[in-house]
Write a structure and sequence with these properties.
Helix content: 10-25%
Number of strands: 12
Order of helices and strands: HEEEEEEEEEEEE
Strand content: 35-45%
Bound molecules: copper (II) ion
InterPro entries: LpqE-like, Lxx211020-like, PCuAC_sf
Protein name: Copper chaperone PCu(A)C
CATH superfamily of the largest domain: PCu(A)C copper chaperone
CATH class of the largest domain: Mainly Beta
Pfam family, one: PCuAC
Number of domains: 2
Distance between the termini: 77 Å
Structural class: alpha+beta
Keywords: Signal
Organism: Agaribacter marinus
Length: 168
């Protein structure tokens, strides 16, 4: 009787150890996988009012807007080149709409957008926006566009921009 108990005991320890071993293998694999694809997450930017504009069916460009708040005690700089999945668009940049000789045009904000400590910058129609070029498919209401913003300090921030039909 005692022998059987001992055997059971050893068996359960073995089970425990092997599941622990599996746990570590899975975790190490996950961690190394993360290391390959991950980035330093920005801890100083808060996003709100995030949306993208529904496009017409054959549109090759799209625009998205958001409000960004710098929670930090130092300035931060959002770089113009964000990252977008190639299944969504070939490129995304920060643009600014400008009036020149009564002609409205837009251009890339090549310097990036500086946000002072504890300040908010609004990306709004008629002003700053994220410009998607080379759309693979139109932005459709109900969808959400994923983008990763990059900052000068090397950190990044993934954001979701739900598609809104502004005509409604
Ligand atoms: Cu634009």
């Amino acid at each position: 009787m005692k022998v059987i108990k001992k055997h059971q005991c050893i068996h359960s320890i073995y089970t425990l150890l092997s599941s622990l071993a599996l746990f570590f293998v899975v975790n190490v694999a996950f961690a190394s996988d993360q290391k390959n694809t991950s980035f330093k997450m920005s801890e100083h930017a808060e996003i709100s009012q995030n949306w993208s504009r529904e496009t017409f069916k054959f549109a090759k460009t799209g625009a998205a807007y958001f409000t960004i708040f710098n929670t930090h005690h130092a300035s931060t700089l959002v770089l113009s080149h964000a990252a977008v999945d190639q299944n969504i668009a070939s490129m995304v940049q920060i643009h600014e709409t400008v009036m020149e000789d009564e002609i409205m045009s837009m251009m890339e904000v090549e310097t990036g957008v500086k946000i002072l400590p504890q300040q908010t910058v609004n990306f709004l129609p008629g002003g700053k926006h994220l410009m998607f070029m080379g759309l693979e498919k139109p932005f459709t209401k109900g969808d959400s566009v994923s983008v990763v913003l990059h900052f000068e300090d090397g950190s990044s921030l993934p954001i979701e921009l739900p598609v809104v039909d502004v005509r409604q």
